[in-house]
Design a protein that fits this description.
Distance between the termini: 68 Å
Number of domains: 1
Shape: globular
Structural class: mainly beta
Strand content: over 45%
Helix content: 10-25%
Number of helices: 1
Largest sheet: 8 strands, antiparallel, barrel
Number of strands: 12
Order of helices and strands: HEEEEEEEEEEEE
Amino acid sequence: MKKIYLLIILFLLCVCTFTCNAQNIEGYWQFNSPLFANYQAGYDFYENNIFVYTPDRYNGLCRNSGISGKYEIRGDSIYFTVLYMGKCVGGTIKRRPPSTNKRSEMELYWISSEKSDYRPIPSTSNYWELSNCKNQRITLEKPETWSAKFKYYKDKSGQEIIEIDGDKFYYIPGAEEFGEQEE
């Protein structure tokens, strides 16, 4: 009789562990900030366990536009099988003059509360950038699978967060989640 109870408890523990880690993470998750900033690194998780990872786009010389493939969450781990790589091909190199009005180019700024001045977030490529390149999706000949520690939770304000190997990614709601727009 004790063995049956023990088996039932172990079974329920396994079911609970699987259920607690099987959150629906579909949507866009941005690295390190809950404020939508377009150029931050992030994951897009889609139905059918498809993912797209886009690296930080502040480096204007980066030719890697992302990776994509399949993912699976098991327990406290997430498994990524990378099937494709996005690559910027061709194009020209351009240098933007430092006097350019950066706000009109949609660069991210922060406002200092003390001086109320605008300061650009430094780019890893300074003022250099690629221009007029074409994006290509390259199928990897030998897809590989990598695992990472995974955690899903909500902070005190209710903001959804996932951690992948300790890095925080914040859920960014899509337009459809804000309801209909009034005109």
